[in-house]
Write a structure and sequence with these properties.
With 500 residues, the protein is mainly alpha-helical. Helices cover 73% and strands 0% of the residues. It is a multi-pass membrane protein.
């Protein structure tokens, strides 16, 4: 039987159990984080091997994001009720099984289906890894444990594109997914043997399954309509209409549900709402940028998969090295300036990418753009997280962080669906260097414009939080696809992220 969170043994980091907990939670979260960063560099090879068009490559990314973004809040609640270790282990096993199916996929349809299943596993294990740390470690050690967890996770995010490129050029793209299987074979048994079980003793077992299903369905239908919009078929129109109706139904269900996955009253805070709108702008631009840039470097510039993955390392490296200092600066001067300057720097970095075309050299052409982009990301990510947490009551910090993370992922998947359409990319664009380069040059200003809008919203709406506001615990962060999921302290004092 799961032990209520307040009765879980107070584990110390220096103990063998503490080290085992850190190992299994880092391995589990790294599986999901690696997958979100390595797949982009494998896309051209996947397309050639499976004879897939651009829409199939978009869905290879978005099928995972749809289920992950739609279910991540529900995943945290399931762990609170049924046991965080149990749900975490289930997520690890589910993720590994779906990864195996990805690695064995004979065609793009099977791969896309398996990626959607991967997202379900990710929604179970991502909030669970941090919740286990919060529920297991002694209060004096929790801050350090969370710091180690986020730091090692950031290193995993930095290594991801490099590792993905090496696998694609070496054993083959299928090993990008198959690598998760041995990681799971280590992670799951260690969790079962060494990680204490915990749950929320006040959890009542009512889950907002209709809300989760409607949210994921709305994202899937709208994404499908955007990806297939160029065909102009009746199916596309119906998908768009049904997607909007599902979104309206989601809002209605959340308002009427006694235990909503996304309580509408959390948006009563104008600052929370504004920062999430900024998040949508920022991570929509990031999602579109990293999707297209990995293709641009390979299709147009002629990089190998390993070369493209290595080329993107500076952005993550800068975040790892400077994110903590950026957070400290944001605490001193307030979030308004970082959340304004950061997106503008990122916009400048994306405009500098217009220099990256046929025959481009890395140091004079590619590196300056990525350094400016990385500095912009450093400036905004930590203050954005701090402002989200400061905008709500401390007891809702986990929920606020989960909402912000889900918003970022949803923005990224919509951008990956919409940006090729807006830039005029045809189904076979990635097979032609000239066609893809022309579309890329139309896409980068669009990404920059969205970032400028985000900066304007931040400048006009974000204010300095109260001096006693909650500070982020994940101070070292390296993931470029979403802000960090922060631990929450809900009613029992140790609820994990995403707990409604």
């Amino acid at each position: 039987m799961a032990v209520p969170a307040q009765h879980v043994p107070a584990v110390r980091i220096s103990s063998p159990t503490g080290r085992w907990i850190l190992l299994t939670t880092v391995l589990g979260s790294s599986m999901a984080m690696l997958d979100s960063t390595v797949v982009n560099v494998a896309l051209p090879t996947i397309g050639r091997d499976l004879n897939a068009d651009l829409a199939a490559l978009q869905w290879t990314v978005n099928a995972y994001m749809v289920t992950l973004a739609g279910l991540i809040l529900l995943g945290g609640s399931l762990g609170d009720h049924y046991g965080r270790r149990k749900v975490f282990v289930l997520g690890v096993i589910w993720f590994a099984a779906a990864s195996l199916l990805c690695g064995l996929a004979p065609n793009s349809g099977v791969l896309i289906t398996a990626r959607a299943l991967q997202g379900i596993g990710g929604a179970l294990l991502t909030p669970g890894s941090l919740a286990l740390i919060q529920a297991s470690f002694h209060p004096d050690d929790r801050g350090r444990a969370v710091g180690l967890w986020s730091g090692f996770g950031g290193i995993g995010a930095a290594v991801g594109p490099f590792l993905g490129g090496w696998l694609v050029d070496g054993p083959g793209w299928r090993w990008v997914f198959l690598l998760n299987v041995p990681l799971a074979l280590i992670c799951a048994p260690v969790a079962v043997r060494h990680v204490p079980e915990s749950s929320d003793g006040r959890a009542h077992g009512r889950f907002d399954v209709p809300g989760a299903v409607l949210g994921a369905l709305a994202l899937a239908l709208v994404t499908y309509a955007l990806v297939e919009a160029s065909s102009g078929s009746l199916v596309v129109v119906l998908s768009a209409v049904l997607g909007v109706l599902a979104a309206v139904a989601f809002v209605y269900v959340e308002k009427r549900s006694p235990d909503p996955m996304l309580p509408p009253d959390i948006f009563a805070s104008r600052q929370f709402t504004a920062v999430n709108v900024v998040t949508l702008c920022v991570y929509a631009a990031f999602g579109g940028f990293f999707f297209l840039t990995a293709l641009q470097l390979q299709v147009v510039v002629g990089y190998s998969a390993l070369g493209a993955g290595t080329a993107l390392l500076p952005t993550t490296a800068l975040m790892l090295l400077l994110s903590a200092r950026s957070g400290e600066l944001g605490e001193r001067i307030g979030p308004r300036i970082p959340l304004t300057v950061g997106p503008l720097l990122c916009a400048a970095g994306m405009l500098l990418m217009l220099r990256v075309g046929p025959g481009a050299s890395y140091v004079p052409d590619v590196l300056p753009a990525l350094l400016v982009l990385g500095l912009g990301m450093v400036a905004l990510v930590a203050p954005l997280t701090a402002t989200v947490l400061a905008s709500v009551e401390t007891s809702r910090a986990g929920l606020a962080s989960g909402v912000n993370n889900a918003a970022a992922r949803a923005a990224g998947l919509v951008a990956v669906a919409a940006l090729p359409l807006l830039a005029g990319m045809g189904p076979e664009a990635y097979r032609s260097a000239a066609a893809f380069d022309a579309a890329f040059r139309r896409a980068m200003p669009l990404c920059a414009a969205v970032l400028v809008v985000g900066a304007a919203i931040a400048f006009t709406t974000v204010r300095r939080p109260a001096p006693d506001c909650r500070r982020p615990e994940c101070r070292t962060h390296g993931c470029v696809t979403s802000p960090p999921v922060e631990p929450g302290r809900a009613r029992t004092g140790t609820a994990g992220p995403g707990r409604p």
